[in-house]
Design goal:
Layout (H helix, E strand, L loop, with lengths): L1 H20 L17 H94 L2 H16 L4 H10 L4 H9 L5 H15 L4 H10 L4 H9 L5 H15 L4 H10 L4 H10 L3
Protein name: Putative host cell surface-exposed lipoprotein Ltp-like HTH region domain-containing protein
Organism: Caryophanon tenue
InterPro entries: Ltp-like_HTH, WH-like_DNA-bd_sf
């Protein structure tokens, strides 16, 4: 519409200008009468249409621009949406790829966890078998338990006892270590057992426990926890010596001192024994 109106405006303008410049030209001659067109007629036939078309064109131009803008704006909006959609496609594809990769990693982690669980279970079974030991070791374990049920032993003393029973040193050590033994408690029991059937000085009893295989600290702790009258122990030992042998007073005192009693306790014990 605007283009057509513009063309008409140009045509009217050219005719109007030519008519004003040369109204007597052949182009403006009346065909019927052979007369020339006057300038007034030129203005009426071409000038007025030119002015009207020009005014109409000026009036339509803003509307045309607005219409054009209205058309262009949706087009631009559509192009932007298309670009956003095109840009969104790679993002969605990348997200899908990353999701698939994460799923593969999760699956691999699950498989590795299952394999590790199987390995752990196998290791547990092997550890149980190893803890149970061979048939010979199991027999040694039962023998060690039997000894511990009725007597007190140091670790080394119990190993030696099992070896005496015919077990190898390795199997004997395995059997002893298979039991959760409180060796200090074993030392305490042995110390009490010795005091119950024999007389000892403190240092003499410590030496005896060390001889049985306990360490110095265990032996000392065992003796210190006893509730014993050591002077009475000296008297008991003096009486025991006199039952099986003959002594002079000084000889008996020397023997008691050798057994680690003090000279005062030895002299008191000799007197109490009748010397």
């Amino acid at each position: 519409m605007v283009a057509l109106l513009s063309l008409l405006t140009v045509v009217f303008f050219i005719l109007f200008v030519v008519g004003l410049v040369s109204p007597s030209s052949v182009f403006f001659r009346a065909s019927a009468r052979g007369e020339h067109t006057t300038k007034k007629e030129v203005f009426r036939f071409f000038g007025i249409p030119f002015l009207l078309s020009a005014i109409l064109l000026v009036w339509l131009m803003p509307t045309s621009e607005t219409t054009t803008d209205a058309v262009v704006e949706p087009v631009l909006s559509t192009e932007t949406e298309v670009q956003e959609e095109v840009a969104a496609v790679p993002e969605e594809a990348q997200a899908q790829i990353e999701a698939e990769e994460q799923a593969k990693k999760d699956e691999q982690a699950r498989i590795e966890a299952e394999e590790q669980a199987k390995k752990d279970e196998q290791a547990r079974i092997e550890a149980e078998k190893q803890a149970a030991g061979t048939m010979e070791q199991q027999q040694a374990v039962r023998t060690a338990e039997s000894y511990l049920n009725y007597s007190a032993f140091s670790r080394s003393g119990l190993i030696e006892q099992l070896m005496y029973e015919g077990f190898s040193e390795t199997d004997s050590a395995f059997a002893v270590d298979a039991h959760n033994v409180d060796w200090q408690q074993q030392a305490n029991k042995m110390a009490q057992s010795y005091i119950d059937y024999s007389a000892f000085s403190p240092s003499g009893l410590i030496d005896q426990l060390v001889y049985e295989g306990f360490n110095e600290q265990q032996a000392t702790n065992a003796v210190n926890q006893l509730s014993v009258d050591w002077v009475q122990q000296a008297v008991l030992m003096a009486e025991s010596y006199l039952e099986y042998s003959s002594f002079s007073r000084s000889g008996l005192i020397d023997q008691l001192i050798y057994e680690c009693f003090s000279e005062a306790d030895a002299s008191y014990a000799a007197t109490q024994a009748g010397l």
